[in-house]
Structure formats: structure tokens, C-alpha cells
Amino acid sequence: METKLPYKWPFALDVLKRQYDALPSQRLLAFQSQFFDKMGPNMELRLFGNVGYMTTDPKNIEALLSTRFEGMTPGGGS
């Protein structure tokens, strides 16, 4: 079951800004890990009106890596 990434600003701009701020100090992984620690291995992420998913679940990662993405275009079309 996915949980939604919590955010306060429209379009999750607060999360995006905090990730951007974590980049120079090389703390992006630590920043993102805190959400997985609190919410579990799967998250739904909505940025700029688009839906995405983040996972640390080994089974989901294996399924993604074994998927053939040939012919795929951004936005889910084929």
C-alpha cells in the first residue's frame, strides 16, 4: 500500500526545495530516507500535478528492473 508524501506548499514545492537544499551538502539520501523510515517502503509523490512513486521495497525494485521499457515515452504512453 502506498502512502502519500506529506507536503505543505502547493505542488509539493516545499519538499522539492528541501531536496534541492540537501544537494550541496550531499544529504539528499538522508533527507529522503527519513520519509521511508516514517512511512514505509512505498510512497506516492505528486509534483506539479504529476503522480510518481518511490520505493525501497526489494520486490518492487526487482519488478521495475526486470521490466522492458523499450518504446516507452514520458507520461506513460507507448
Describe this structure as you would to a colleague.
By secondary structure, the protein is α+β, with helices and mostly antiparallel strands. It has one domain (3-65). It is built from three helices and three strands; from the N terminus they run E-H-H-E-E-H. The chain has helices spanning 13-22, 28-39, 58-65, and strands at residues 3-4, 42-47, 50-55. Strands 1-2-3 form a three-stranded mixed beta sheet. A hairpin with a 2-residue loop joins strand 2 (42-47) and strand 3. The radius of gyration is 14 Å and the shape is globular. The two termini are 26 Å apart. 1% of the residues are buried.
What's the short story on this structure?
The protein has 78 residues and is of the alpha+beta class. The chain is 38% helix and 18% strand.
Task: Describe the SSE topology.
Layout: E1 3-4, H1 13-22, H2 28-39, E2 42-47, E3 50-55, H3 58-65
Parallel strand pairs: 1-2
Antiparallel strand pairs: 2-3
